[in-house]
Amino acid sequence: xxxxxxxxxxxxxxxxxxPENTLAAIKLAWERGAxxxxxxxxxxxDGQIVVIHDADTSRVANRKMILKKSLYADLKKLDVGSxxxxxxxxxxxxxxxxVLDTVPHAGRLIIEIKSNVDLLPRLKILxxxxxxxxxxxxxxxxxxxxxxxxxxIMPKYKMLWLLDLDYYLPxxxxxxxxxxxxxxxxxxxxxxxxxxxxxxxxxxFICNFKKAGLLVYTxxxxxxxRAKQLIEYEIDAITTDRAAxxxxxxxxxxx
Length: 255
Fold this sequence. Notes:
Distance between the termini: 14 Å
Shape: globular
Number of strands: 9
CATH architecture: Alpha-Beta Barrel
Structural class: alpha/beta
Number of helices: 10
Largest sheet: 8 strands, parallel, barrel
Helix content: 25-40%
CATH superfamily: Phosphatidylinositol (PI) phosphodiesterase
Order of helices and strands: HEHEEHHEHEHEHEHEHEH
Strand content: 15-25%
CATH topology: TIM Barrel
């Protein structure tokens, strides 16, 4: 079995305790011993790749600005820390370059592409200029077309297809063909899938993908008992809002 820390991914940094996708949350994750951190990226009107989840700033700031229609100089003026707690006041939307610079020697950054293919050439340049090794970067996205193009222009990085499966609809209304999904992942030359932790993420689901030589990650698991169960099912990675805490809780259960 892998070391628990190697399996746990800090979702948008240590987002339970610090404002998501900020340098504060990301640095806190590294300080607490995280091996892997996941962040979300969009591109601004002036071609800067910024780290933020939503397509606009309304949820994390007191002003709504649409990222693709805004200049980074204006976005940088926003406070995206106070929504979490006043102690985080003044946290800014970081550039991806700033986040790349925080990754420690043994760290791994999982980058979720939230925008379209226009971002990819700029992303390629940033990653190639960074000091990080190939295995320190992974790319994920819901849009399979974006991933397919990303794989074509950046084939050296691991890429996983995000699947929400039964996130939006009752699971009993959905018929999911594992064979069909596996075939598509292989056709796109991806390394695996990153699946929402719903009722369809079973031991059988995980085993089928792993037998096909594919990685299986999941999001978002904040329950240590469920996390331990998924580890026993031999899942490859678990994304959580409470990376340090859940790692500690799982290790207690294992002992």
